[in-house]
């Protein structure tokens, strides 16, 4: 057991946990003042439910021996209750229980991300049921595909993307961000548009909260990415550096695009560019050079800024732009590995720009396509079944007046009486 690696993974797990309140503050600042409590409760509630499911069967489904050896789902009964992780494994460099805790945070963060597409109009109880079903039927299987590796002896079989396809996803561009972004699109389509969308938009009620949330996410992301090296060594150092410079480039890229299109750069845009770049560098952080990380971050900031317009052009109400930032950012970052990967980086493979040909790009595209289709279809079915049974939408009057009082019998601010708020937040 390596004490240095163990200490780093303990710290990284805490940093990833910090991302859950980071998402809550980020999303909470973007909604109206009479919707912030519900938005934050969706993040905390969904994450907490997934944590319990992780103990019961989620870790087994994600990291257990693949059923039938086909790489689609781990045995959900193999580590049932996680009591098997109490015994120390002398062959492991870090405690297996700690690895389970680290990956638990990924499951919690991913579920919280999806909540942004349903802001202000989904029943809290329906969200909790949705979160449990979505983690069980979507996140746990996809995590197995991407994160579960065959063991050295060949006695435990992992996921098909990680082992058979050989696609690179260092910390979750597909399993976390593309998965959550596509799920957010499916949920938004079934849930329907906010009342008054898109003409009557509620302004983000607290830009300082948005920046606070983005700051917590930025800090937590170092644990998310560098912690995925699972050791306190060279790989973690390179990943840490790549994460830092990509985030900065994304912030600048989004601000530049806003300046060119709108004549000004906003604080919300800066925060969004930062998050978009962190999303994009997540799968690529161990495969590219620092210069490649800057390129990926800048491209994400520019492209995701333009992708915001998709919801208006296509007519879906993704309240907090989960699709534009996480689906598009995750897709970009995963595909750009096929171009910018260099053999000198920890992953040790080369993309097209470094003489590696098209094979890696093809593998990355297949991984993206599989996660995209699976996540969208299964999420849509889950949401549709819930819509037809328990219902998804809150009453129209509660939606117009703000969901906090109806769902939680609380107000975030004592002087928050009226006015009526309509629609989803705008980015202007």
From TrEMBL:
Which chain regions cross the lipid bilayer? Answer: 6-27, 39-57, 92-115, 127-147, 167-192, 204-224, 236-256, 268-284, 290-308, 320-341, 361-383
Say yes or no: keyword Membrane present: yes
Asked whether the keyword Membrane is assigned, the reply is yes
Intracellular or extracellular location(s): Cell membrane; Membrane
Q: List, for all copies, the residue spans of the domain called Ammonium transporter AmtB-like.
A: 7-413
Top-level lineage group = Bacteria
InterPro entries from the UniProt entry? Ammonium/urea_transptr, Ammonium_transpt, NH4_transpt_AmtB-like_dom
- Keywords tagged on the record: Ammonia transport, Membrane, Transmembrane, Transmembrane helix, Transport
Q: How does it sit in the membrane?
A: Multi-pass membrane protein
Q: Which family does it belong to?
A: Belongs to the ammonia transporter channel (TC 1.A.11.2) family.
For this protein, the record's PANTHER family field holds: AMMONIUM TRANSPORTER MEP2
Protein name per UniProt: Ammonium transporter
